[in-house]
Amino acid sequence: MTRRTPLNEAHRALGARMVDFAGWDMPVQYSSLIAEHEAVRNAVGLFDVSHMGEIEFSGPGALETVNALISNDLARIADGQAVYAGLLNEQGGFVDDIVAYRFSPERILICVNASNREKDFAWMKAHAKGGTPVDRGEEFAQIAVQGPKAAGLVQRLTRIDLSKIGTYRFAEGEVAGVRAIISRTGYTGEDGFELYCAPGDAVALWNALLTEGQQDGVKPCGLGARDSLRTEMKYALYGNDIDDTHTALEAGLGWIVKLDKPAFIGKEALVAQKAAGVKRKLVGFELTGAGIPRHGYAIHKDGRPVGEVTSGTAAPSLGKKAIGIGYVPAELSSEGSTFDVDIRGRAVPAVVVKTPFYKKP
Amino acid sequence: MSNIPSDLKYTKEHEWARVESDKVTVGITDHAQNTLGDVVYVELPKVGATVTEGQPFGTVESVKAVSELFAPISGKVLEVNPELESSPEDVNADPYGDGWLIKIAPSDTKQLDSLLSAAAYAKLLESA
After folding, report:
1. Is A86 on the interface with B (CB under 8 A)?
2. What confidence tens digit (pLDDT) does each residue in A345-356 have?
3. Residue in A28, A33, A292 nearest the CB of B41
4. Which of A221, A229, A320 best tests the B interface by mutation, with the highest count of B CBs <10 A?
5. Taking CA atoms, what residue in B is nearest to A346?
6. Out of A16, A18, A240, B112, which residue is the most buried by the measure of CB atoms under 10 Å away?
7. Three-state DSSP string of chain A
8. Which residue on chain B is closest to A34 by alpha carbon?
9. What is the pLDDT of residues A310-358, one digit of tens each?
10. Searching chain A, which residue's CA lies closest to the CA of residue B62?
11. What is the pLDDT of residues A230-281, one digit of tens each?
12. What percent of chain B clears pLDDT 90, i.e. is strictly above it?
C-alpha cells in the first residue's frame, strides 16, 4: 500500500507529478525541476518531507542510550541543538544517517530516512541499552523551507526571533498559528528551516507559507530538485552514497564520527579501519567528456573496474555541468586524480574535484 | 492533456515519426518530454549510422534520469539535429518541431504500418 502524507491532495492540486518513493506517494516535480532548483538557490522553496520518520527516546538516561547508538556526540551539544550522525552497524557501515535533536538529556528526537523507518526502529529496539524507542512518525508532518529568503518568509509568520536560532539549532513555537518545531536544518546547502508540525496542521502551514511566500518567489519543490540540490553539495543520500556495506570513514563522514567518546556501535571497526588506513573513498568528480554519470555506473582506471558511481546529475547551478559522486581506491581520491566512467560501454574521462561542487557566490 | 498531432505515427515507447517522401523524422512525444522533465543531454547516433526498428539508437537525459530512445523504423541516419548539443531544452519546448532528433532513410517502408496512429497512441496514454 502506498502511503500518503497529509499534503497529498495539496500536491495534486498544484499539478505535481507524483511518484512512489520508499512506499510513499510523493511529488517529484511541480513545474520544472530546474526552476524549482533555482528557486531554492535564489529565493525560497517548500518541500514536503513528511515521509521522514521520527523516533524518540525519553526518560532518565535517554542521552546516554542514544549516544551509544549513534556516531556523533550528543554530550558535546546543548539542549536546543541537533547533530547529524550515523546509526552504524558493528562494521562501521550505515544502518541509516539521522539527525538527533537534543530537547534535554531526557528527551532526544531522531529524524530518520523514510526508506529506513521500520528498519531503524527495529535496530534501535534491539540495540538500545537502558531505554526504549518510541515511534513518533505518525505524530509529525514535516515541511522544509529552504533558500536565501526562507528566514525572512518564516519570520513574517512567527513571533519567535529566528536570528537566535543558529544552524543546527531549533526552538518550539507557532508558525502561521501552527505549533511547530522550528529547526534550522536542511538538505540543500541553503539557509532554511525544517518545520515539524502535527499532521492535521500541515495543510494550513503549507498554504500559509505558499501565500506569504509569493512576494519572495516561493515555489513548491519536488524530490527531483531535492536530489539535484543535495548532489551539488555532495550530501549523502542513503541507499545511493551510503549504505550498510560502506563505512562512515569511507564515505568521508569522519566528522560525524567521534572516536574519542565512550563506546558506540561501530566504533571498534572504525578505530581499526582508521589505524589500517581507509582503502576506498567517496569522492566528487566532474566528467571531462560528454555524458552524465548515474548511480551504478562503473568507474574504470586503465580499462579495469575500480569503483562505482553512487550519484550523478547535470548540475543546474553549475551550468548543467556533469558531476558525480562515487567510491574509488584511496590512491585515486585526491583532487586532480583521473579515471573513466563507463557510460553504456563508453569510457568517459573524469577528474576528482573539490566538494561541495556548489559554493555560494 | 498531451499534445498528439494527428499527422504523425507513434511508438509504444513514446517516439513519434513524421513520414515524408524519402525520409522519416523522429522525435519524442509531448507526453515523453513532460514525463522526463528538463532535458539536459541528448546522445544520438552519427550521420550514416544504421538504426534498427525497436532497438535503442540513443538516449535522452534529464537532470534526474536517463531514458533510451527506440527507433520506430530501420534505416540509415541522414541527419542529426545539430542544435540539441547546445540546446537540449528544445526537446521540452518544441518536441514536434525544433526538438526533433534524427532523420532516417528507411530501409523498409512497410515497417511504418506497424506504428501507432495518433488515436491509438492517445488510447495508449489513457490506459497507462
Report:
1. no
2. 999 999 999 999
3. A292
4. A320
5. B43
6. A16
7. CCECCCCHHHHHHCCCEEEEECCEEEEEECCCHHHHHHHHHHCCEEEECCCCEEEEEECCCHHHHHHCCECCCHHHCCCCEEEEEEEECCCCEEEEEEEEEEEECCEEEEEECHHHHHHHHHHHHHHCCCCCCEECHHHCEEEEEECCCHHHHHHCCCCCCHHHCCCCEEEEEEECCEEEEEECCCCCCCCEEEEEECHHHHHHHHHHHHHHHHHHCCEECCHHHHHHHHHHCCCCCECCCECCCCECCCCCCHHHCCCCCCCCCCHHHHHHHHHHCCCEEEEEEEECCCCCCCCCCEEEECCEEEEEEEEEEEEHHHCCEEEEEEEEEHHHCCCCCEEEEEECCEEEEEEECCCCCCCCC
8. B38
9. 999 999 999 999 999 999 999 999 999 999 999 989 999 999 999 999 9
10. A314
11. 999 999 999 999 999 999 999 999 999 999 999 999 999 999 999 999 999 9
12. 91
**Domains annotated on chain A, with CATH:** 8-50+140-232 (3.30.1360.120), 53-129 (3.30.70.1400)
- All residues of chain B having their beta carbon less than 8 Å from the beta carbon of residue A294 are 65-66
Contact A224 B37 (CB under 8 A): yes
The answer for A 312-331 residues in CB contact with B (under 8 A) is 313-314, 316, 320, 322
Measured between beta carbons, which residues in chain B are less than 8 angstroms from residue A228? Answer: 63-64
Q: Which of B59, B61, B63 sits opposite A224 (nearest CB)?
A: B63
Q: What is the pLDDT of residues A133-171, one digit of tens each?
A: 999 999 999 999 999 999 999 999 999 999 999 999 999
Nearest to A294 among B35, B37, B66 (CB): B66
Domains and CATH numbers, chain B: 9-107 (2.40.50.100)
Place A35 in a pLDDT band, splitting at 50, 70 and 90: very high
